Each structure stands twice: as C-alpha cells, then as structure tokens.
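Bit of a strange request maybe. I'm writing a small parser for structure token strings and I need a real example to test against, not something I typed by hand. Could someone generate the tokens for this chain?
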Amino acid sequence: MRNAPDLRLVIAVVATVMFGASAYAAIGDALASYSPGPLALLRMLVASVMFAVFAAFAGVRLPEVRDLPAAVLAGLLAFALGLQGASSAGGDPPRTKKLKAGR
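Reply from user aminoacidic:
Good idea to test on real output. This should exercise your parser:
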C-alpha cells in the first residue's frame, strides 16, 4: 500500500501551479499599462521581497563571499534575458490592441 503524500508538499505544488498559471494573465493585463522593462523590474522586486521574507523565516543562510559573483551574474541574466524576454515575446497583448484600436 502506498503512503499518502505529505500535505505540505501538496500545498506547495498547488500554490506553485496557481501562482504560475495566474502570472500569464497578470502579465498580459499589466502590459496594457506598463512597458516590458518596468514590468520586469516590478516582478523582480516583488519576487525578491517574497524570497527575503521566506528566507528570514526558513533560516536560509547567506552565500559564501566567493559565490557572490556567480550569484550576481545568474541574477542579472535571469532578469535581463528571462523576464524581459517573457514580457515582450508576444508583442502587444490582445487587450492593448483593443485599447489602441479604440483611440
């Protein structure tokens, strides 16, 4: 007989799927008001604050000094390539096209 999954794991998976799935709708809606660059910065700031709160409560230790250059480089690449590309990959979202057509 199989063991039941850990409830914390199930909650974490459900939360991840819900937040990840809602991000696409939120980005599409936000692109009607913000350009991709500031929107990517806002997303990174919100994620940074959320991680800092989590890290404070979970006891995440700071990286070693020798690991900081690699961590900074990875963060910059994630910001510059990942968020900017994801925000602008689709061009104008449908809502923006409707707003522009109505002017």
